[in-house]
């Protein structure tokens, strides 16, 4: 194994970023050495330290088998857990710090099943060669902090290139998810895949089908939340991976008609994503600012036009229409997110934003009634801050005058929304009679009829604003007289 020290400046920067955890690294290294085992800091933490970035997690690898690791960590920490024992990972907590230590691994897929076949390795060499990319195949032996780089990771780190420690066909055959990780690192780090890596991704893209939807989802989430998701998404499409994991995205690359009478929907969607990111609030900001990175907003921006391919129509006059693409798109987005095993809340929120993203365009020059604005607010609900940003991001016109007009019109709508929210407390809008009062006024019991009556009064509240309990009761009785359950409707009296 070739081992070389990195340039002095890089080493100093790495040590500086690891300074807060150096006592921990030394302590754990000493403990494993005393027990007769090797221990190394490996992967992302080493890469990030060399890049001058602060790592959020510390990954350790060891020659110790899980039972031996657990014995060392039990003496070090206050609690241990072994949920990852099957994969050689033991976790522990000590002095407020959580660590996970994994036995050298040499596992791979069998090419058929969705789970890797776990096999433990016998050396750090075995472990590093099975890592996804050379920039993640560097290590610091502990406790002496010897830098280990058998596959030229430091060289590739400096060149901002993604290469695999073993031939990419072997690496991606061992775990096809590594192709998704390549796209994720492009989005996170700004690196580019080496030509042979890109070629293997194109050739082996169909093999991603053996990976579980949950693992694909997790990589996609990391990619979308990265600083530059567009670059990673473009790699997914160019390599053919998106055809298997997110087919709605490459489907947006519609053939542009010879007269270029409609936008390139794929490029438009990528631009909307970037503009939505620019409108996110700072991390840790108040909810109304949509602090970034925001998964729901970013997914909605990416998927807002996925209904266009299915609804595209060439009109007689040479134009192109996409009628009701927002409704179709909402269904397609929800279907895809469910297939990727996203949680129900995220799926529902993204689909709702896709469904609502065109609503603003009915506002025209501001001629909506207060009733229409109220419905816009209540239909969006808690998603209103995200809908504001998605709608603004959806303006990608190069016509400066048109862009300014749209922005001014949406400014007007937001001002009206703020006024109505302040005057009428619409975030908690309710009918002016509660369920008990409605039941008493109509002489009915709880059930479907009471639910319809409640919805009617809510519609009255949205259409007319606050009118007072007496007027609300009068509207309710007028409605009730027209219902078949009242015994009055159709009586001719």
UniProtKB/TrEMBL annotation:
Tell me which cofactor or cofactors this protein depends on: Mg(2+)
Ordered alphabetically, the record's keywords are: ATP-binding, Coiled coil, Magnesium, Metal-binding, Nucleotide-binding, Nucleotidyltransferase, RNA repair, RNA-binding, Transferase, tRNA processing
Q: Which SUPFAM superfamilies match?
A: Nucleotidyltransferase (SSF81301), Poly A polymerase C-terminal region-like (SSF81891)
Could you confirm whether the keyword Nucleotidyltransferase appears in this record? yes
In this chain the HD domain maps to 265-409
Q: Which domain of life is it from?
A: Bacteria
Q: Name one Pfam family in it.
A: PolyA_pol_RNAbd
Coiled-coil intervals in this record? 403-430
Q: Does the keyword Transmembrane apply?
A: no
Extract the InterPro entries matched here.
Answer: HD/PDEase_dom (IPR003607), HD_domain (IPR006674), HDIG_dom (IPR006675), NT_sf (IPR043519), PolA_pol_head_dom (IPR002646), PolyA_RNA-bd (IPR032828), tRNA_adenylyltransferase (IPR014065), tRNA_CCA-adding_enzyme (IPR050124)
PANTHER family documented for this protein: MULTIFUNCTIONAL CCA PROTEIN (PTHR47545)
The protein's name is: CCA tRNA nucleotidyltransferase
């Amino acid at each position: 194994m070739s081992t070389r020290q990195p340039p002095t400046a890089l080493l100093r920067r790495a040590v500086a970023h690891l300074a807060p955890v150096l006592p921990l690294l030394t302590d754990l290294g000493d403990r494993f050495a005393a027990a007769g085992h090797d221990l190394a800091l490996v992967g992302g933490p080493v890469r990030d330290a060399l890049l001058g970035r602060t790592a959020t997690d510390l990954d350790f690898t060891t020659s110790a088998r899980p039972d031996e690791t657990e014995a060392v960590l039990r003496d070090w920490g206050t609690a241990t857990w072994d949920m990852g024992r099957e994969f050689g990972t033991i976790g522990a907590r000590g002095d407020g710090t959580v660590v996970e230590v994994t036995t050298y691994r040499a596992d791979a897929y069998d090419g058929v099943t969705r789970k890797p076949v776990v096999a433990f390795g016998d050396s750090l060499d075995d472990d590093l060669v099975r890592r996804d990319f050379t920039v993640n195949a560097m290590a610091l032996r502990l406790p002496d902090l010897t830098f280990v780089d058998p596959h030229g990771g430091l060289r590739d780190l400096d060149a901002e290139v993604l290469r695999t420690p073993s031939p990419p066909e072997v690496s991606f055959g061992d775990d096809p998810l590594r192709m998704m990780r390549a796209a994720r690192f492009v989005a996170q780090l700004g690196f580019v895949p080496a030509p042979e890596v890109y070629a293997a991704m194109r050739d082996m893209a169909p093999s991603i089908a053996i990976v579980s939807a949950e693992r694909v989802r997790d990589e996609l989430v990391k990619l979308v939340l990265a600083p530059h998701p567009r670059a990673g998404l473009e790699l997914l499409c160019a390599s053919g991976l998106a055809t298997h994991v997110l087919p709605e995205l490459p489907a947006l690359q519609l053939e542009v008609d010879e007269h270029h009478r409609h936008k390139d929907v794929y490029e438009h969607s990528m631009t909307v994503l970037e503009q939505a990111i620019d409108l996110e609030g700072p991390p840790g900001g108040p909810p109304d600012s949509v602090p970034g990175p925001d998964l729901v907003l970013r997914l909605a921006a990416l998927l807002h036009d996925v209904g266009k391919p299915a609804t595209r129509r060439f009109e007689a006059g040479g134009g192109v229409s996409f009628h009701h693409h927002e409704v179709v798109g909402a269904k397609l987005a929800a279907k895809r997110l469910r297939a990727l095993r996203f949680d129900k809340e995220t799926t529902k929120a993204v689909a709702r934003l896709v469904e609502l993203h065109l609503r603003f365009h009915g506002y025209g020059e501001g001629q909506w009634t207060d009733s229409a604005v109220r419905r816009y607010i209540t239909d969006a609900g808690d998603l209103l801050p995200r809908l504001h940003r998605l709608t603004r991001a959806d303006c990608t016109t190069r016509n400066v005058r048109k862009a300014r007009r749209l922005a001014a019109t949406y400014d007007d709508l937001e001002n009206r929304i703020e006024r109505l929210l302040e005057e009428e407390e619409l975030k908690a809008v309710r009918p002016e009679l509660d369920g008990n009062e409605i039941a008493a006024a109509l002489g009915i019991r709880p059930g479907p009829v009471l639910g319809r009556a409640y919805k009617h009064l809510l519609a009255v509240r949205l259409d007319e604003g606050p009118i007072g309990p007496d007027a609300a009761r009068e509207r309710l009785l007028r409605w009730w007289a027209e219902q078949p359950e009242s015994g009055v409707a159709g009586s001719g009296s």
